[in-house]
Amino acid sequence: MKKLSKFLGSWRYWPTCIRFMLRSDLGISFAQRFAIIRDFYRITLSFENIPHYQRQILVFAEAILQQPRESRGVIIEAGCFKGVSSAKFSLIAKMTGKTFYVFDSFQGIPPNDEAHEIYGSAVTFEEGDYAASLDTVQKNIREHGDIDSCRFVQGWFDDTFPDFKEPVAAAYLDVDLVSSTKTCIQYIWPLLQPDGVIYSQDAHLKDIQDLFADEVFWREEVGTEPPTIRRDNKAQLLYVVKPG
Ligand SMILES: C[S@@+](CC[C@H](N)C(=O)[O-])C[C@H]1O[C@@H](n2cnc3c(N)ncnc32)[C@H](O)[C@@H]1O
Questions:
Q1: What is the domain partition of the chain in residue ranges?
Q2: Whose C-alpha lies nearest to ligand 1, atom 2?
Q3: What topology does CATH give the domain 53-241?
Q4: Ligand 1, atom 27: closest residue by C-alpha
Q5: The pTM is what?
């Protein structure tokens, strides 16, 4: 009953889901598109207090599915919390035959002194917020997603990303901090394949918007001409595409 009312309460995402099911340009059948929506809802209804909107996960799924199947590169999620978004992305990885890397400390947000603002209200992310162990994440993905598509990289991004050298097709950042976002972009951008994408789910944070718009950051810390910053307002996502 609780699941049914939660499902009915999500009515505002139904048009997005129906549009997704009707898209014929994603390289998968209607049955597969239907299965994605069914599985994403099944996963959502199995957890409480999920820190993403269904629309956000679908938009990133579409970005992966739109890439030619023969294109190189792995999928990355930086910031997984309990692995609910990861379980959904792992199903897309399986469908596209791509390897899916999950980066997280598995002990929550790092120590930081960042003060954030969401639409004018002050907010902070404290050390240890969103902590979930690697075991918990793996169990959730095993039960709800495709664990065989996943590789887990445990540790602070500053320690783990410098050793990562795989070509990247698509990356999804949901890390709450400017410092964490910076590290992800600095290391992922050089590995990003032509037409590859980096999405940020932290588009509601003013300082993250400012970071994406900071031309000096792109030139001096990433080492590239600033890319066009794109925004999906409905899904509250920021993203950049590597020029082809
Ligand atoms: C909001 S949660 C992710 C939620 C998840 N994407 C979802 O929708 O279910 C943010 C995550 O970022 C991770 N994180 C943030 N900064 C990090 C850093 N510098 N190194 C490792 N993990 C980090 C935290 O451990 C946490 O799991």
A1: 53-241
A2: 81
A3: Rossmann fold (3.40.50)
A4: 81
A5: 0.95
